[in-house]
Amino acid sequence: MTQRFPILLAFILAMPLVAQKDFKGKVVDAKTGGPIPYVNIGIINIGIGTVSDEKGAFHLEFNQGILQLDEDVIFSSLGYKPFKIHVSDIEFGYNEHREIKLMPSAVQLQEVVVTNADTDSKFVDELVGHKNYGSNNFGYWKEDTALGGELATLIPVKKGLRKLNSLGFEVLQNNMDSLLVRVNIYDSDGKWGTPKTNLNTSGKNILHKIKKADTYCTVNLKPYSIFVKDDFIVSLELVQVFGNNAVELVIPAAISESGSFRRYASQGKWEKISESGMGYHLDTSVLVAKDKAECIEQREAKKKNKQNKVYGFVISNRRMLAGVQVINMRTKEQVETDNNGRYIIHAKEKDILLFSNAGYKSKQRRVVKEPTMNVILEMDGR
């Protein structure tokens, strides 16, 4: 039976329809006065929330039932101290935009201590997370999606110091021109193992734009220096939609027993929706004893040597292209073309390879029996 994760469907309050009040404003830095983009705004665990846009502007609609709540509207953003305003203290105006000032907080970098790392231990690469190998499971954002809504999955790992290098996920369907998501890395320290503490202590948002033609996305996590020591949770959060089409984004899920979580809007309540995991997978570097590291590397090398390889050149206008990303859509292995435009990747017959580079139209090619495959990319004229 197909498993569906009905994430972020239009949120309908169990209250009669009444006249709504508009809470509009702009979130700015209290010291510089500059706008703060993509601030989470909402009432904790109520399901009423949004995210400020790239210029710091926001718009919340409250009905009479919400106005009678004894609650606070919370403004929170990485690198800033949270700000609260009680619902009863909100001033409403048709064309008035209140200025909300957030005070910068001292960025507390994660304390990473590596004992005798040069002699006794070593970082080795390890792929963790979930992949979809053709199972008919998926999660989706659909219709009147609330900004700030998230779809999250637990990533089980062995205990030990681990750096997160990149996140990958497939896109089965995207009905919009493009949309902007924020990647959040959480500890599973919330109630019943739900997401709570954000492990991204860099003070910088991890943002990624998903374009309509994208079938696979890779997010570089190295600039944020995120380390974990145990299981952690990865989420994608919707922060901005481009174009006028209805929201419809579908991402594959995987058969697993990790568990997935959702919340409908910014600052909303987390709920567990399935035992399966979303198809989020991460390239990581884990610290292990040197003797163990050598065993792991040798084992992985033997596995790769036994696999079939495809190689070739990527060309545009009779010029070899360096830095083109090549992804095997089945195994999720990814490589880049070298300075001569050449690539080598493990693949077998009927695998799909995706070739993509900034400024060029992406191209997919199916692997055939021959081991060579040269690809011509066209410039993106948009």
Automatic annotation (TrEMBL):
Pfam families hit by this protein: CarbopepD_reg_2
Listed SUPFAM superfamilies: Carboxypeptidase regulatory domain-like
Any coiled-coil regions, as ranges: none
Superkingdom, natural source: Bacteria
Record's signal peptide: 1-21
Annotated keywords: Signal
Protein name: Carboxypeptidase-like regulatory domain-containing protein
Originating organism: Flagellimonas ochracea
Taxonomy of the source species: Bacteria, Pseudomonadati, Bacteroidota, Flavobacteriia, Flavobacteriales
